[in-house]
Amino acid sequence: MSTIASNPTEHRLTSDVVIGIPAYNEADTVGDVVRAASGSVVDVLVVDDGSDDRTASVAAAAGATVLQHDANCGYGAALGTLFSAAHEHGVDHLVVIDADGQHDPADALDLVATQRDTGGDIVIGSRFVEDAATDMPLYRRAGLSVINGLTGAALSLGYSSDRVADTQSGFRAYNADAIELLACRADLSDGMDASLDILFHAADEDYSLIETPVDVTYDVEEANTHNPVVHGTVLVSNIFGRVLSDRPGRVLAIPGSICLFFGVLLTRLSVAGLTLLSAFVPVLVTALLLTGSGLVGAALALGRLQPSRK
Question: Which of 59, 100, 264, 301 could bridge 46 with an S-S bond, Cβ 3.0-4.6 Å?
């Protein structure tokens, strides 16, 4: 992947606040988003991720600094270019918004204000906290509730104590520390699951995650072109893959402890004569105790071999 500036004479970021917009084939909407985001106190940087249409020229005409990928590399790759450019120019706050008009650019400075007030390393524009407004379709809301729950459970396994209600929001403000961290991460996913990677990378560094309410509309043409089933599968695979890689001991300890608990419980019930399937109980108890002991033993061994990063 190579990156070029569409308007090289204007490839400079002079404000300490930059609104970054990853874009792919968004010529119909990106101009309006750039104009709404532009202001005397912010610069607007668009990363055109190898679009086939006039996304780059429309964004540049609207006043944005534009960087182009020579091929479509993915949402995460576009984010990586935003982080690298912001870090290179010493930006204090990078606010990432979508190019399709779902996010209200007027909310960007609210995220920055929250970041300055709270000292949060990453401020997330959340659709699922008090005072947030969204017309998200019900099927998408249901799917996101599952993803949010799984991500929250994974983050609680020694990654972060911060609770995040909207783990998939792309509307986020990053401070200079977070920008530097993410600009230097070569393992950031190139795909849509980059938003998930960012949370884990930030949590690994004990960076604080703060949420603030925003308005998000889905009443825009092609608000999301990604198949929700495919996207959800990718996210779930990312979550389980990361936890198995980073925290294998804790993953094994949970089912192991459950097996041991029920094995001991059935043993006590059997001794007390309270079980009905008495002939089957010894076999089940043996299986539960052996499985539980094996899993917990493996968890303890892995915990010694691969201690938590924190």
Answer: 59
* Pair (186, 287) in one structural domain: no
Q: From CA 235, how far away is CA 229, in angstroms rounded?
A: 10
Same domain, 176 and 262: no
Nearest to 13 by CA among 86, 103, 116, 101: 86
Residues in a beta bridge with 213: 126
Q: Can you name the residues that pair with 4 across neighbouring β-strands? A: 68
The answer to whether position 310 is within a domain reads: no
Q: What is the dihedral of CA 195, 150, 122, 79, to 10 degrees?
A: 0
Q: Select from 173, 272, 170 the least CA-distant residue to 224.
A: 170
> Residue 222's domain is classified under what CATH number?
3.90.550.10
Nearest one of 286, 35, 77 to 185, comparing CA atoms: 77
Domain range for 280 is 248-305
d(CA 126, CA 169): 6
Cα–Cα distance for residue pair 174/93, rounded to 1 Å? 6
Predicted confidence at residue 297, as pLDDT, reads 75
Do both 120 and 175 map to the same domain?
yes
* 104: CB partners within 8 A, 6+ apart: 36, 214, 215, 216, 217
d(CA 48, CA 66): 7
Give strand pairing partners of 126: 213
Instruction: Choose the final residue of a domain: 246, 274, 292.
Output: 246
pLDDT bucket at 263, cuts 50 / 70 / 90: confident
